[in-house]
Amino acid sequence: MDKLKNYDTLLFSAMAFYAIYLFTSYNGAGISPDSIMYTSAARNFVANGNLHTFNHIPIVDFPVFYPLFLGIISFVSQTDPVAFGAVLNMFMFATLIFASGWIMSRFVPSSHIYKWLVLAAIILNPGLLQVYSYLWSETLFILEVLLFLIVFRMYLLTHAGKWLVFAAGIAAIACITRYAAVTIVGTGGLLLLLDRTLPIRKKTGHILIYGFVSISLLVANLTFNALHTGTVTGPREPSITSFGKNLFYFGSVFCEWIGIPPGMYPMFAMPLAIIILLGFVAALAYNFIRRKLNTFENLAITFALVYGLFIVLSATFSRYERINPRLLSPMYIPALWGYTSLGLLFIKKFAAKNLRTAAAALFIILMLGYITQIFLIDKQRYTDQIADDYGNPGYTDNDWMESEFANYLKHMDKGIFAPKVGIYSDAHEAVYFFSGMSSYLVPHKFFKKDVEKFYKIKRFYLIWFNNLENPELIDLKEIKKIKKLKVIKQFEDGAIYEYDGEDSLSQN
Prior knowledge:
The protein is mainly alpha-helical. It has helices at about 1-25, 35-50, 65-75, 80-105, 110-125, 125-130, 140-160, 160-175, 180-195, 200-230, 245-260, 265-290, 295-315, 325-350, 355-385, 400, 405-410, 430-435, 450-455, 475-480, and strands at about 420-425, 440, 460-465, 485-490, 495-500. Among the domains are: about 235-350, no CATH class; about 405-500. It has a 5-stranded mixed sheet with strand order 2-1-3-5-4, with no helix packed on it. It starts with a helix and ends in a 9-residue tail after the last strand. The relative contact order is 0.10. This is Glycosyltransferase RgtA/B/C/D-like domain-containing protein.
């Protein structure tokens, strides 16, 4: 049976590898604006030994480790990240599934059928399949979460200092992979506080060591950002969504994951979010009372609770993209483990002997129903994006590949731009991706001083994409009201303009 622990997990890992192959078979890994930031920094690392983005400043909105990771692979392989991204994600998703299977083989109680069902649910989760179809830092971060759980459990079992430092080191690297990795630091810190097997003096020392090591790289990264750019994580706007609204969006993602139709989200999303988070609180409290903090199941529950609360609260105070499956993807596996392992525990320990078979059959039926539901979602996405020859939405999908404007940017004579005259755009990452040129993003409406500064510029070029409406940026109509723009090149989906210093159409 020990051999089966590995062979069946390897089989599921191969399935995971193939799943990402399928979803990247048309146009490779999906490329979003974030992906371009990562790849441009990785290219600069290979070419110039720094982690500057295409606009010649250090990468700030995102931590440094993922572009460094891509840069190292690019340097060793002499291959561009866009070219190897799909294969890299295939291996990382396969590794994620292997680590998941390895961990579940050590659940108490454990079950091969349970492991097979849950591994299938992980592979087929639409959120994870989307994440591992793109060049996104979550692909690495989710792996780091599982590695942390493995190592931190070794610490909880032995209380050996070497495992504590190792776990803190993983947390430190994760913190410079995703800023949300402070949740890993929080998970370890919370479990250290709750651990009643350590004497107070030793516990205090371990908390200090863990805290210092785990945040060390993040502090260094943020300090570097502040010294070189004046901000620690780039310009951030205050949130425009309330706690209640974010809780609803949180629940909506879980509704999507369990197959509830969108029309029923208003009824189920908020109650589901509350039940999920309170359920984790209750499970953690139960394990604390039982002195069972050192199980993988409890580690998963603790991380899912800390991460879920962090996303909801941070979205309440800081504005970023609406809570969606990508943002919650690091929580999926721990949350799935948390609730399904409770079901397994109930069947094995608490269900009456004459009811265990019926309870197990019901659990299997529910899991098969869920797996079928998400398989159908994945099948539809495959049909829409791959079978119908469209590609993963982003800068390599058919809309962009067939765009006359994008193709013009790829091959245009850059001599149309006068030297030392600034180029601005509503999608500066798209300008770089298609033309290789650097440009500046037009200012956000929220930052009034930046808007005023922009309108005082004596001469500039403007590359505008008509199909990329961003309500947070000043729009083309507003610019045209103030600046007399001359059309250099016009297309259906965009245009290149020049402002040559002629008198404004209205007073600034």
